[in-house]
Design brief:
The complex is a heterodimer. Chain A is mostly helical. Chain A has helices at 23-32, 36-53, 55-58, 73-76, 94-129, 133-146, 150-161, 165-192, 195-203, 207-215, 220-243, 255-263, 277-304. In chain B, helix 8 (170-182) runs parallel beside helix 9 and helix 17 crosses helix 18 (427-440). Classes of the chains: A mainly alpha, B alpha/beta.
């Protein structure tokens, strides 16, 4: 090493330079070091995604098909091989409804979360950049929204606007965007003071450029982690609302209302344990997905040593 | 102040206190273990001060910490032996080492502000280790701490210990930290760049008090720094490190006058760079009587008037808080002035940034101190340099790419750098990219805000030479904000001295830097460490006379 060049050249300058790696290489290194729980979470999520996307192909029957025989589950298990998990109280195939439920519940939750991130993220960025009256207005408005228990607020709004899927999505997205707003604003506030943002301002860049190109890429890790977490919460909210009868309406299959419908028979489980299937299967599906998403988010948060606001 | 050092020749004191042999340290970075220290020997006698110098990444801090038997997280001492006063630190258990640290070996860190616990009073923190290690009783240690404060010339030594860290200045805090290190009367103190974060005028006081106290108690010390002039004042011997290897080691005087290695010589020669001044009457920027304040607060600038000639460099010097950077913010439009006006090319400059036209914005560009934070870490070099081309000159596709490569060539890098992210560049390269971004706009005036202060000496020289060459080729005007007089000498034609928000004087370099001086200018110039090892003694004498 003693033969190192004694003359100075800019291109050959050494220092603590990070090796150049493509995105894919970095992802591979990260995956190799992922813990078992994260792997479990990713596999479960992939499985759910697969089922949700190909529900029409995978499901043996339609989600609203009623079978004339109306095989009750306690009679069907082991008896009728056409319905592996039996049928529910009005004779619909439980497995088919579980599969369609994945598509409906996950799909709606995903759209809602995306929308809430779009609203909360955009407003949070604007508030972080414009720290004057606009920030005050938005932040205090969010405080007001957050001061009302969100499930009760959602129930009230749903009874005003009716329980259609679009209004369900809008209402949950707006209510949930308050938390996204707070996170985005606080993370972006640390980036706004960076010299490169000032450099962009001095260059004369507009608000939109500064938001999209200078700040957003630098706050992605905590936002992505929050997305996973928010998705779980939205998903649970939808299931809860459906359970209460104000969410996704029949005959559309969804896990929340399946739990509610099946729960009526739960008191007879001491006579026939298979009665628990119509409610426990969708409840288990909700639980498993929530756990899986949280495993992945935990790992991601740990990796980026990021922020968590709940 | 005594001059013991001249009576007892430096470099021959007592028996051996610390002996490190063939130290090898590995560090974990980017998923792999790299060698940080590659077999360095180090010997320190009682009462001796050893200066460790080198660029960042040379391993001087790592070696300094290793002398305590400590490796920071992500580092491990692979082999070698460390003998401290007959005790083998490589074989010592954690508990044995902990008993040593804070009682017989003390450490003074670079940033005192970050090293103190903001929730406790200074004196509690000063005596904490001493009392915990049972070196002294609480009452005795507190009494001693006050005496230490006094010998470190801290103001109001009886009461200053009752303050909290945020209630004293940076220079005072650094001295309190020295008192903390000295409190248990250690055999060895490790100073890790203790004055790097301080202003030159403050640095002198801190250096003086540190040196006198080290001499008073005959403590051995390892002084880590990248500033040669500082190390010349403090050390009996100097060891130069590079890439984790020893370049050379010699007694201070010999090292300064007669370095044997090319690398050491090149370090020494950096400060010789000097641009001949050229007067000019063609004024490009005329700041007239500007007042400015943040919010409704106190005026930060008062009646600031600066004339900047075209194609020349005007350096604004002054300590932190003097209003140098605020002046830059007013010129760029980030902080509209409360009173006064600014003329650019003879036309009044729009005061508020938002109202400025694209062309006005293009003509004035800015380069920042920390290249790390001045570039978006998620954009490639090509995007960073390409954006002003697209924004101001409507270039796109192939023409833009060709111009980016041209600019990269101008800053002595090649086209392959266009795909890199800022994290894949070294400090000097980052600053070059920032220069290229400013050049891409084809500006007439570039404001350089402490652009070299975060860089090592050799890299600094490269950047300064580049800036000078570009000025010659493109006739660009620079406003150079700095507190480093060596940089001022190297690059400027004219100098503006600022103090507490006002201009003390403006004039050609030769007028300002040569006698007769104005009072403040003299203090500022005096405070800049010189390579002469007797410089600090002279200052001490001068101040003693006053």
């Amino acid at each position: 090493m003693s033969k190192q060049e004694q003359t100075y050249s800019a291109a050959g300058e050494v220092g603590q330079i990070v090796t150049k790696r493509s995105w894919w290489e970095r992802a591979k290194i990260a995956l190799r070091k992922a813990p078992v729980s994260a792997w479990f979470g990713m596999i479960v999520i992939a499985f759910y995604a697969f089922v949700a996307i190909f529900a029409q192909v995978l499901a043996p029957y339609g989600e609203a098909d009623v079978f004339s025989k109306a095989d009750l589950p306690w009679a069907s298990l082991g008896g009728d091989e056409a319905h592996i998990f039996g049928t529910d109280q009005i004779g619909r195939d439980v497995l088919s409804r579980l599969i369609y439920g994945a598509q409906n519940t996950i799909g709606i939750a995903l759209i809602t979360t995306l929308l809430s991130f779009f609203i909360g993220g955009a407003l949070g960025l604007v508030a972080a950049i414009n720290r004057a009256w606009l920030d005050q207005l938005l932040s205090r408005g969010v405080d007001v929204l957050m001061s009302i228990p969100s499930l009760i607020f959602a129930l009230m709004l749903l009874s005003i606007f009716g329980s259609s899927i679009p209004s369900l999505i809008m209402i949950i997205a707006v209510l949930d965007s308050t938390r996204v707003f707070r996170l985005t604003r606080s993370v972006a506030a640390n980036v706004v003071v960076m010299d490169y943002v000032e450099a962009a301002r001095l260059r004369g860049e507009g608000l939109s450029w500064i938001m999209r190109r200078e700040i957003l890429p630098n706050i992605m890790p905590p936002l992505v982690a929050e997305f996973g977490l928010r998705f779980s919460f939205v998903f649970l909210t939808i299931a809860a609302l459906s359970f209460l009868g104000l969410g996704i309406q029949p005959p559309t299959a969804d896990w929340g209302s399946m739990v509610r419908d099946g729960s009526r028979f739960i008191q007879f489980v001491k006579f026939d344990w298979t009665l628990a299937l119509p409610s426990l299967l969708p409840a288990g599906a909700v639980a498993l997905l929530t756990v899986a998403v949280n495993f992945v988010v935990d790992w991601f948060l740990h990796k980026t040593s990021g922020l968590r606001d709940e | 102040m005594s001059n013991n050092s001249e009576q007892t020749p430096r470099g021959e004191k007592g028996d051996i206190l610390l002996e490190m042999k063939d130290i090898r340290i590995d560090g974990l970075s980017d998923e792999r273990w790299h060698q940080i220290i590659k077999g360095v020997n180090l010997t320190l006698k009682r009462g001796e001060v050893l200066g460790l110098i080198g660029e960042s990444g040379a391993g001087k801090s790592t070696l300094g910490k290793a002398s305590m038997g400590y490796a920071q997280p992500g580092c491990k001492i692979k082999s070698g032996s460390i003998m401290f006063d007959g005790m083998d630190l490589m074989a010592a258990t954690e508990a044995e080492k902990r008993a040593l640290w804070g009682s017989r070996i003390a450490y003074v860190a670079q940033s005192a502000a970050a090293s103190f616990n903001p929730a406790h009073r200074l004196i509690d923190q000063t005596v904490e280790a001493t009392v915990d290690h049972g070196v002294s009783t609480d009452a005795a240690a507190r009494k001693d701490a006050v005496e230490l404060y006094e010998s470190l010339t801290l103001p109001n030594p009886d009461a200053i210990g009752d303050r909290y860290p945020h209630q004293v200045s940076g220079g005072q805090l650094q001295r309190v930290m020295t008192a903390m290190a000295m409190s248990p009367r250690p055999d060895l103190i490790i100073f890790d760049e203790p004055t790097t974060a301080l202003d030159v005028t403050t640095q002198v006081d801190v250096l003086l008090s540190m040196r006198s106290i080290v001499e008073k108690f005959n403590t051995a010390a390892i002084y880590i720094t990248h500033d040669l002039a500082v190390v010349a004042q403090m050390a009996d011997r100097i060891k130069v490190l590079r890439y984790g290897e020893e370049v050379e080691e010699a007694v201070t005087n010999e090292m300064l006058t007669n370095p044997t290695q090319d690398y050491t010589k090149s370090l020494w020669s950096v400060r010789a760079l000097e641009k001949p001044e050229a007067p000019s009457e063609d004024i490009i920027l005329d700041v007239k009587g500007v007042d400015a304040a943040y919010g409704a607060g106190v005026k930060v600038l008062q009646d600031v008037s600066i004339k900047v000639p075209r194609g020349r460099t005007v350096s604004i010097v002054g300590e932190s808080g003097s209003g140098k950077s605020t002046t830059a913010r007013v010129i760029t439009g980030l902080l509209p002035p409360m009173a006064g006006s600014i003329e650019f090319n003879g036309e009044p400059l729009t005061p508020v940034l938002k109202d400025r036209s694209k062309d006005e914005l293009r003509r004035i560009q800015m380069i920042y101190q920390m290249a790390d934070t001045a570039m978006n870490p998620k954009q490639t070099v090509g995007e960073i340099i390409g954006r002003p081309l697209e924004f101001y000159h409507n270039m796109s596709g192939g023409t833009r790419e060709a111009r980016v490569n041209e600019l990269l060539e101008m800053i002595e890098l090649d086209a392959s750098f266009a795909d890199r992210l800022p994290s894949e560049l070294s400090g000097g390269q980052k600053q070059r990219i920032c220069i290229a971004r400013a050049l891409a706009a084809e500006p007439e005036l570039i404001i350089c805000d402490e652009v070299t202060s975060a860089l090592d000496q050799i890299v600094q020289e490269g950047i300064l030479k580049l800036l000078l060459r570009l000025q010659k080729e493109l006739n660009i005007t620079y406003i150079f904000i700095t507190h480093d007089i060596a940089v001022v000498k190297a690059i400027s034609d004219e100098i503006v001295v600022m103090y507490q928000g006002g201009v003390v004087e403006q004039g050609l370099k030769s007028n300002v830097l040569e006698p007769p001086y104005k009072d403040y200018t003299q203090l500022l110039l005096e405070s800049v460490p010189e390579m002469d090892p007797t410089w600090l003694d002279k200052i001490a004498e001068n101040r003693g006379v006053e």
